[in-house]
Amino acid sequence: MELQKTDNEFNSGLADNEYEPFRHRSVKKPNSTNGTIIHMLKGSLGTGILAMPSAFRNGGLVFGIIGTTLVGVIYAHCVYLLVSTSQKSCKKTRVPVLGFSETAQSVFRHGPIATQRFGNAAKAYIDYSLLIVSFFSVCVYLLFIATTLRDVINSELGIDWDTRVYILLTALPLIFVTQVRDLRYLVPFSALANMLILVTFGITLYYIFREPIDLSKREQFPEITALPSFFGTVVYAVEGIGVVLPVENKMKHPQHFLSCPGVLGIVLTFITVLYNVTGFFGYARYGPATRASVTLNLPSEEKLALSTQLLAALAILFTLGIYYYVPMDILWRKVKHRFPAERHNIAQIGIRFSILVAMTALALGVPELEPFIGLVGSICSATLGLLTPIVLDTVFRWSTPETFGVFRWRLVKNGILLAFGLFILVVGTYFSIKDIVDIYG
After folding, report:
1. How many Å apart are CA 115 and CA 102, to the nearest integer?
2. Which of 13, 153, 295, 424 has its CA 20 to 30 A from that of 222?
3. Neighbours of 181 (CB within 10 A)
4. Which domain holds residue 198?
5. Per-residue pLDDT tens digits for 69-89
6. The pTM is what?
7. What are the annotated GO cellular component locations (predicted)?
């Protein structure tokens, strides 16, 4: 509807530079700049931080810092490209705000002649990509909970149940959690989950730093074959592209998002430093034995460590409702017209349950957490977080070549970043699948 209005107004006689999208935004209860920083931190700072020591195990201490910083800078730049392209599209098409998929639709529709017919396809691509990322994240979290329960319960009871048993046990309460459709019932659980993650992270740091750390027997640089897993895990941990435009669109002062220093710079600097510290010292502490989630390395004989693992699993369980809500909202809006109104309730129940069954089946097929995190990071996070913003910026500028700068340096830069994103996508996916085949083949 927004873009239809845009087309009607596009030739209204108002010059592009006379329209200021920020002045036309009408947002109820807009977020302050500080509030936006908190929301952005919540979008990027999740359980991925617990996988950073595993990433450093693949990358080594020295290269781990270099690589994590590189990914942080590239991801920050890609977020900048996405937000700036969205804002320029708003200005060009005279629409106050555009979401992620609407930005893609607008860029392609008003871009070069060759791209204009792909506007709707670009919108659908973003929507379905966000669906896939969200549902794969549900699968990763399901594996995380099951793996944690396996380690704790098997250790405490002296049994040897397989991870698949705990996947099925975890899926049982999720049958009810994933049927919650009202966001207001999920928000308190999300707040509690955030608190539990912070407590988990704090106790984990206590175990990492409670004794002197010896760096002498730790790898400094990676094997070449370990690079894709390293980058895939880091991209998965850092990336939170899905929340960027929804958060920016609700700012009271949206001009503060890309300013210097602004929301983007503050958040990504903090995230990059925190992930470097966690990855470096987590691997330095546990070395080659570092697990896919560092909480699994904590001493199982200590009650505090066991409680930390259970707190992390509980936090993820509380978070799953929110992660399920967003993709289901997108999916339901796309398919509800296929069902008669009197069958909407049973259709929602069936779709929600079917997707949970599919994710559970995938987790049962690949119950190893580490290669799955690398796979999700390589396919989903690299595609949405890195490749898509670069493509949108390039298409937007294509009709006005002078915006690429002297010697088209922006186009060259985008080409290099595109190659990096494709490297993670193709090579990372290959090695993640290879690891999975090696484990189960």
Report:
1. 15
2. 295
3. 17
4. 49-333+347-440
5. 999 999 999 999 999 999 999
6. 0.82
7. vacuolar membrane
> Which residues contact residue 425 at a Cβ distance below 8 angstroms, ignoring those fewer than 6 apart?
378, 379, 382, 383, 387
Number of domains in the chain: 1
- Return the number of other C-beta atoms located less than 10 Å from residue 199's C-beta: 15
Answer for the pair 36, 257: CB distance below 8 angstroms, yes or no. yes
Question: Which letter does DSSP use for residue 11 in this model?
Answer: T
Residue 296 CB partners (closer than 8 Å, separation 6+): 147, 148, 151, 309
What is the DSSP secondary-structure string of 113-159?
HHHHTTHHHHHHHHHHHHHHHHHHHHHHHHHHHHHHHHHHHHHHHT-
SS3 at position 374:
helix
Q: How do residues 135-155 score in pLDDT, each as one tens digit?
A: 777 887 888 888 888 888 888
The reply to whether 376 falls in a domain is: yes
Give me the residues paired with residue 31 across strands. Answer: 251
Residue 149 lies in a domain: yes
How far is the CA of 12 from the CAs of 7, 93, 106, 363, in angstroms?
10, 11, 17, 53
How far is it, in rounded angstroms, from Cα 134 to Cα 124?
Answer: 15
User: Coil, helix or strand for 31?
Assistant: strand
- Does 164 map to a domain? yes
Report which residue type is found at 269.
Answer: T
